[in-house]
Every structure is written in structure tokens, then in C-alpha cells.
TrEMBL record:
Places the protein is found: Cell membrane
Name the record gives this protein: Sucrose transporter 1
Source organism (scientific name): Urochloa decumbens
Keyword field: Cell membrane, Membrane, Sugar transport, Symport, Transmembrane, Transmembrane helix, Transport
SUPFAM superfamilies the record matches: MFS general substrate transporter (SSF103473)
CDD domains reported for this sequence: MFS_SLC45_SUC (cd17313)
Amino acid sequence: MCSYHHGSFPIDGSCGSPGDVVLICPLFLCTSYNYVQTLGLSHALTSFMWLCGPIAGLVVQPLVGLYSDKCTARWGRRRPFILTGCLLICLAVVIVGFSSDIGAALGDTKEECSLYHGPRWHAAIVYVLGFWLLDFSNNTVQGPARALMADLSGHHGPSAANSIFCSWMALGNILGYSSGSTNNWHKWFPFLKTKACCEACANLKGAFLVAVVFLIFCLTITLIFAREVPFKGNQNLPTKANGEVEAEPSGPLAVFQGFKNLPTGMPSVLLVTGLTWLSWFPFILYDTDWMGREIYHGDPKGTNAQVAAFDEGVRVGSFGLLLNSIVLGFSSFLIEPMCRKVGPRLVWVTSNFMVCMAMAATALISYWSLKDYHGYVQDAITASTSIKAVCLILFAFLGVPLAILYSVPFAVTAQLAASKGGGQGLCTGVLNISIVIPQVIIALGAGPWDALFGKGNIPAFGIASGFALIGGIVGLFLLPKISKRQFRAVSGGGH
């Protein structure tokens, strides 16, 4: 499986957030790490590069969502943004994949890449610029894509629409992790290897070019079949009591002005969403690192045996993520019936309690794995077959609450926006802010917190369990209650 590990190369906001071009995200995670090392990027520059995710999620998606709500294009409100974003994604992927060749053309070393191991700054700069473009483009697509699903859900309701959306995300994850798990792209397409681009680089090129083909195919299907009714501007705006049309906010600050016009119950949704993601991000950021350190007792900077153990743990953890995606796909079909039967609020809080137990289980499993050893995690170099199996079961189990996380909050948001008469794009963008802020908190705080307890990942998972418990309790009392009848009657608000 892919040799990417989150502990030293943290996941970014776009790939961590739901609703993205999910084939490219896991593919990027699986193929890019080894390639980045060949460019000579420093750890500081790498960290700077990954700041793009939170920035893009905090700024781009709410703005794009707002403007897509008001777009009067002949194609509809959402598809112009989806088209623009996807074309930019294709451009960004090509820039990233061919950054070594572009860097060589701009003046990097002319030595054979297999012989030269120094920094290639032109290629590194091109790579970072392409990466930032990819992140901003992803965030341009994800908000309108979610809003389009809500717009077109019709009598089926937002729960069914977001469940379908979630199932396709799972399929994208499976394809991405599978494509990124092979290192044979350079063998299948030998012309991708050049003097400036060795095996890791050629593998990145091959996987990305295939992803671009899939993306263009899916984009074409969306543009042809997801037909929208063009927005008529002021004709669709709500009116005041005296019959005058309410003026909509405009300009870059319109998102913040729009906060005061959020639907009733939306602040509670934002609060519970933030708590929920606080419980998820430690696992998202450090899952494979946890496998490499606490379960396989390796150290990426230790002896040869420790490095080998760590890499093996990362590979098995990546296989666990693949199992997680498979369970996520199957579970997505059960969410809509569960929401209709017991209501989305109960489904949501139940998933929080499931995560609470799962995160607590990671600490117990780690203790089980390390009980015969003393000192730091890195001092142990053996592994248990039974513990490995339990960990893979845990990865797979988490696919169920992850499917709920990727659909129910967005379905509830769509329902609240529909009850207000529209604004799907803005509400979805604002919801993303409550996802980005927890990511920044965990990314900045988990490392120092873990350092206080022996430099392992167990403390972060302990905190995650606590946040999941708090999120479940808060959600039980504060989340708006949406009846089964409301879920059946909602029209999506976009026609």
C-alpha cells in the first residue's frame, strides 16, 4: 500500500473535508510523499504548503457557495462553478505531476535524477504553487457540488441525496487508495520517466493522469444530466412584509454578513459539527502513524529495523483505510432509511458515541500492544498478529460513523436552508468553516500535547474520545429536531 504517513506529513483541509474530488485526494496522499522528498523541500516549507487547506476551506468555499446561490448563468447556479473548478483541478494536477520537468526547464540541475539528491528549488516552487491551486480548486468544486445535490434532491429529500453523494465519495476513496497503492505506473507507462523525473515522480504522473481522465468523464456526465433551472435573480428572493424584495449581501464580506441570516437551528449544527470533527481529526491525521508507532513499534528516524517496522505499519494502516472506505460505501446506503426511521439527530449523535468508544479503544489497544515494554513507544520492535487484526477491524468499523459524518450534517444543513427558502451554497460553505477550525486546532495542538506523554499518538486519541462524547451529549439536546415528515416533504429549495 502507499507509503504515505500522516504523522510527518499531515493531511490537508481539502482532502480531509468531505465533498471533494475524492479520487484525487487519496491518490495524492498515497503517491506524493515519496516524490516530495526528492525535491528537497524542508519541513518548514512542507508545513507552509499544507496550510493551504484550512485557508482555502475558510475563505474560498463560503464565498463560492454564496456566489453560486446568486448565479444567474444559463447553465444554472452550480454547474458553472463545478466546471471552472474541475478544469482548474486538471491544470493543477498536471502542474504538480510535471513539476520536476518544469523545474528542469526553468534551470534546475541537469544531472540524472537517480544520481542527484540535492534540492531542486524551481521544481519545489512549481510543486507548491500547483498544490495550492489544487486545494483552492477543490474548494471551488465541493460547495456547489453539495448544493447541487440538495437542489436536485426533489421529493427524495437531502438525506437520500447526501447518502448517494457519500457512496460516490467512498468509491472515489477506494479507487484512489487502490491506484495510489501501486508503484508500477512507471513500468506501465515508461515514457513518463525522464532525466528529471525518476520512479516516484513517474508514478505520480501516471496515477494523476488517469485521475484526470476519470474526473473529466464524471464532469461531462454532471454537465449533461444534472440539469438546473436557471436562477432568475430577484424573482427568487424572499420578500419583506410590505412586499419589497429583501436585498442580498454582496462583496467579499457578504459571507460574514450572511451569518446573521442563517436558518434557525444552524448555529447548533455548526457547534455540533465542530465538536464532531474535533473527535475525528486526530484519527484522520495520525491513523497510519499510530499503526507504525504504537502497533508495529517502529520509528521513522530510528534503526533500520525500526524504520522497516514503521513502514510496514503504515502499509497495513493504508490497507485499513481501504477497508474503511469499503464499509463507508456500504453504510452510505443505510443512512437515509435510518434518518427516516429514527430522525437525523439520533443518527448523528449515535455516530458520535460510536467514535467515542472507537477512540477509547485505540488507547486500550495501544496499552495492550505495549504492556510488555517500558519507556517510549519506539523502544519496542515486535508486533502481535492478533493486535493487527483488531486494528483492521477498528479501521473498518469506523467506516460506519464516517458515512454518517459525510452525509447527515450536510443533509440537516440542506433541510434547514430549504425551510428558509434557499441559500444552500452559503450554508454549505459556512458549515465547512466548522470543519476547518477544528482541523487547525488539532494540527497545531496535537503535537505539543502528545510530546507531554512520550511522543506517541495515544493522548490525541484520548482527547478525541472526550470530544466525541461531548459532541454526542450536546447534539442530543441542541440539534434541531427534524421530523420524518419534514424529511419526506423537503424539495431541496433549489428549483
